[in-house]
Amino acid sequence: MDNPVYFHLHHQDADEDLPFWKKLAVEIGSPILELGCGTGRVLLPLLEEGHEVFGLDISFQALDYLIGNVSEQENNLRVFQADIGRFHIARKFSLVILACNTLSTFQQAMRRKVYSTVKAHLLNDGVFAASMPNPQYLAGLSEVGEPEVEGSFLHPITINPVQVSSGWRRSDNSIVIEWHYDHLLQDGQVERETVEITHFLTQVEEYLTELRAANLVPVEILGDFEGSEYQEDSPYLILVAGKGPGF
User: Fold this and answer.
1) Is the whole model's pTM more than 0.85, yes or no?
2) What is the model's pLDDT at position 180?
3) Using alpha carbons only, how large is the chain's radius of gyration in Å?
4) Which domain holds residue 174?
5) What is the rounded distance in angstroms from the CA atom of residue 124 to the CA atom of residue 128?
6) Higher confidence at residue 5 or residue 55?
């Protein structure tokens, strides 16, 4: 996203998944690597709880915003700007996470690169976990969802409201989510910024086949952040896979 401030303010109160990632971090332990960490919505709460966390994102703007909002108590933050499909850190991790609905934005060739880099950076008994919207649920939506208002926040400079609305366009293989950020200016005019994110409707079995091909062993397939078993009507698809003989 070109404007990480909008992204951060839009999603700053989205905390439904945080207990899941915190619980996983306690169970698996540090060090932890978050791929696609963005402005730190997941990374910073893990860091605050005392975990050794590294973050990686391709967006310099998002990482710059993250670094600029870190308190002195969190000055042990370590982040890297890189493509998550081709990076190298001279460190291996107990846990690698890919949160925030990121994995489903990649097509198969990119997913395979991600699995390869994940495997290369996991300890022998390490764990990889990724969350995304349930592709079965998305595939059942109408072809067009007209934009509807979903909230607002105050612009950090003008302190004027920014209204957020979202809609979608669905095909057989993907769905494009479109967010409109309408900034009300002092003169009454509206300045709109639009962001589109494509989610590919990759089915569960394809994800599992790809993980196994990368020698990552699926150990859990969940349908929500409370740990429920995945069903076709689940709101999410959460994949947890392990590396090594323990799995």
Assistant:
1) yes
2) 95
3) 18
4) 138-200
5) 12
6) 55
